[in-house]
Write a structure and sequence with these properties.
A hairpin with a 6-residue loop joins strand 7 and strand 8. The mean pLDDT is about 95. The chain is globular. The longest helix is centred in the first third of the chain and has 21 residues. The chain is built from twelve helices and 15 strands. The strands form four sheets. An eight-stranded parallel barrel has the order 3-4-9-10-11-12-14-15, surrounded by five helices. Helix content is about 40%, strand content about 15%.
Amino acid sequence: MGVLRFCCSLPLVRRWITRMFAPDSGHRTALFGLDFPNPVGLAAGFDKNAEHLRELAALGFGSIEIGTVTPEPQPGNDRPRLFRLPADKALINRMGFNNKGVKAAVASLAKWRNDEFQRLTDQGSRPDPVKGQTRYRGLDSGAVIIGGNIGKNKWTPNEEAWLDYEKCFQALFDYVDYFVVNVSSPNTPGLRELQEKEALGKILSHLQTLNRTKASPKPILLKIAPDLTVGQLDDIVDLVMELKLDGLVATNTTLDRSGLSQESAAKAEKIGAGGLSGAPARQKSTDIVRYIHGRTLGSIPIIASGGIFSAADAREKLDAGASLVQVWTGFVYEGPAVVKRICRGL
């Protein structure tokens, strides 16, 4: 990413990178009232502090989800905390919401937006802000959509978690196009307890109340774990429909190791705690997308994440009922052309 940052600081080189790796303009997708240049986004957890938006946009991502952002900076869990299982094209991470805090994220987003304004101006465009969105209308009107993934600090008690989500929501509101409420990471102690209906309802209803006071409300989505029981999943779906949330992100990393090969299982045993992502999580994620889509008759938009490496993987998620897809582990293993290859295959 350091090399890519340097290359993208040179306008001619950045344009060459964009031509090489970004898909063409024939993949635009409308969802939540937003115009996504293509259906392949980068999941939260990669650009936690919104420091690489220029570089990731040059690689063609239709959306970039920053975060997870917490109100105050926190260092995350002790290192090492990210591990590869190459035999299964998988990762295990126990990052623990390491980030610089919401103020740093806002500063990065503000700088990116100012830089984009200047870039469009230098190109001879007259950029105008798109109402309610972070991007400008200029020569590249299909500019990347920015999502804000928000969470609570590790030391905040669960009964006060709603305050942390409010702080992040208010601070990021003018700088992101949509929000994702993260209560499903397995790496913050007690966080997944917030997926229970009563606790979750308090957080989501409060955010919806705040959102409705805004002149241009932003889409709010919920990111869920792949390890929920059918009963828990039903409760969440009912709550999302009751509160008229805009959608779901399905799914986060899994604690289930049953899909690993013998070689990777032995490594995972030594690694210990952490969320598993990549190819072994693909089917579980797809099954949850299909279940939600069927139970709601397609009335809840879904962004699918989990085991997407190729156009066939993306098509599987879209056929199951997803509207958009996100990659993370697939980006690590497939490299900078992953978006272009998926879009071309689709």
